[in-house]
Specification:
The chain is α+β, with helices and mostly antiparallel strands and 138 residues long. It has a domain of 73 residues. Helices cover 52% and strands 14% of the residues. α1 crosses α2 and α3 crosses α4. The model has no long low-confidence stretch (mean pLDDT 83). Bound molecules: zinc ion (2 copies). The site of one zinc ion has 7 residues, from α1. It holds the Pfam family zf-BED. Keywords: Metal-binding, Zinc, Zinc-finger. InterPro entries: Znf_BED, Znf_C2H2_sf.
Length: 138
């Protein structure tokens, strides 16, 4: 059962001493089964809570996807368009064939030909990711 402090179930209950909680809707005091109480006694609030929880989860997924694309995107900085599906590496000028938006070839190129650049960029990406994660937790 999801009863962590951040769970939307806390919109409907307040914490009392001795690990008891009180339903904000009807005042019933209980020690557990909050979600069950909500579902049985206040079905509309239960639906609302479920919707909130799903929305929160969904937002989390979107955030996660954005993070991943940010991580992939540093390679763009090192690409110069050189024609149809062709991109040139700005460091050494070699031209790579890449479908639009797919920078994995360039990433591979940088990794093998310019390992220092690859290393520092991956570290920045990792650090940024770590920082944003830490921020989200507090
Ligand atoms: Zn109640
Ligand atoms: Zn290069």
């Amino acid at each position: 059962m999801e009863t962590g402090k951040r769970s939307p179930v806390w919109n409907y209950f307040e914490e009392l001493r001795y690990k008891s909680v009180r339903c904000k809707l009807c005042g019933t005091v209980m020690k557990k089964n909050m979600i069950r109480h909500l579902r049985i006694k206040h079905p509309s609030s239960f639906d609302e809570m479920e919707a909130t929880r799903k929305a929160t989860t969904f937002a989390g997924v979107i955030k996660e996807q954005n993070k991943q694309s940010e991580r992939r995107c540093w390679t763009k900085k090192y690409c110069r368009r050189a024609g149809d599906m062709m991109f040139a590496c700005v460091i050494c000028g070699v031209v790579l064939r890449m479908p639009d938006g797919l920078f994995s070839n360039m990433k591979r190129h940088i990794k093998s030909k310019h390992p220092d650049v690859y290393k520092s960029e991956s570290e920045i990406a990792k650090k940024t990711l770590l920082e944003s994660l830490t921020k989200e937790c507090y």
